[in-house]
Structures are given as C-alpha cells and as structure tokens.
Design a protein that fits this description.
Blueprint (H helix, E strand, L loop, with lengths): L2 H18 L29 H37 L5 H32 L2 H18 L7 H9 L3
Length: about 160
C-alpha cells in the first residue's frame, strides 16, 4: 500500500472516530441536553404556562421523527464506512462516500434541531427565550474543546469585538 493510501485510511479512521464521539452519544437522565430533549417536561426550569407546554408538546413528535430519521441515516453511513475499512480490497471512493454521507446526516440533524429551536422560541416569552438560549449556548460550549482554540472562546472574542 503506498503512503498516500495510508494517509487517506488514517484520515478516514480519524473522521469515523470523531463522528462516533458526536453529540448523539448516550446520556444519563441527569445530563439533559437541551438540544436533544426539548419536550415541555424538560423545560420545567423555564416555568412554562400550560398553553406553552401544550404547544411545545404538539411540535415535539415531528422533531423526534426528524432526529430519528437523520440518526438512522448517519448510522447506516457509519456501517458502510466500517465495511469499506474492513474490506479485503481498499476502496477509498466508497470510504469517502460513507464519510460524506455521515457528514450530510449530521448536518441534517443539526438543521432539524435549529428549526425546532426556532419554533420553540416563538412560543416563549422574551425572558424564557433568553434563558433557553443561554442554556443552549452553555451546552454547545461544554461540547467544544476547553482550550484556547475552542469554538466558544473564538465566538466570545468575535462578539466582544476582539
């Protein structure tokens, strides 16, 4: 195998590991991810009215279905990647196709969450929106690396005009 194939294999393997460690990993009940668990019962800390809770609960099934669909697509692509990496013959095009499909599914998942957050925001009061978005921001920053190169450190600097 020539060195460039080893490099590509290494890149694909690193990508697969990175995607595997993504946000869709299992969580305990104690760790509520506001980007994934957006049912009204998870919003008790926002002090929703009964009308707000009913509206969020009405929206939730479509969101759950979208997330389940994109997660299934991502899992299928991950399986294709595993099969291409463990095949007798190297097929870099097949591995790359699987990684691209994984990326596309991950993007679709994030876009579904973003659309859902937009719908939920419309239901909330300005104060509730602020609290929700602050918690979502904390969640996203927790998932970023904790060093100076973290996306949140970069984002904070941009917003502060640095």
């Amino acid at each position: 195998m020539n060195p460039s194939r080893w490099w590509i294999l290494g890149l694909v393997a690193v990508a697969a590991i990175a995607f595997s460690a993504g946000r869709m990993r299992g969580q305990t009940e104690a760790s509520v991810d506001p980007l994934r668990n957006l049912t009204a019962t998870k919003f008790e800390w926002l002090e929703l009215t009964s009308a707000q809770a009913a509206e969020i609960d009405r929206l939730h099934p479509a969101y759950e279905q979208a997330i389940a669909h994109t997660s299934e697509q991502q899992n299928r692509a991950r399986c294709r990647l595993v099969h291409s990496l463990t095949a007798e013959e190297w097929d870099g095009a097949l591995a790359l196709e699987a990684v691209e499909a994984m990326c596309g599914s991950h993007k679709d998942n994030e876009l579904a969450t973003l659309a859902y957050l937009e719908q939920v925001r419309r239901i909330l009061t300005p104060e509730q929106r602020t609290r929700l978005m602050e918690r979502v921001g904390e969640c996203l920053c927790t998932e970023c690396a904790n060093d100076e190169g973290a996306c949140c450190a970069i984002t904070r600097a941009e917003h502060q005009g640095h």
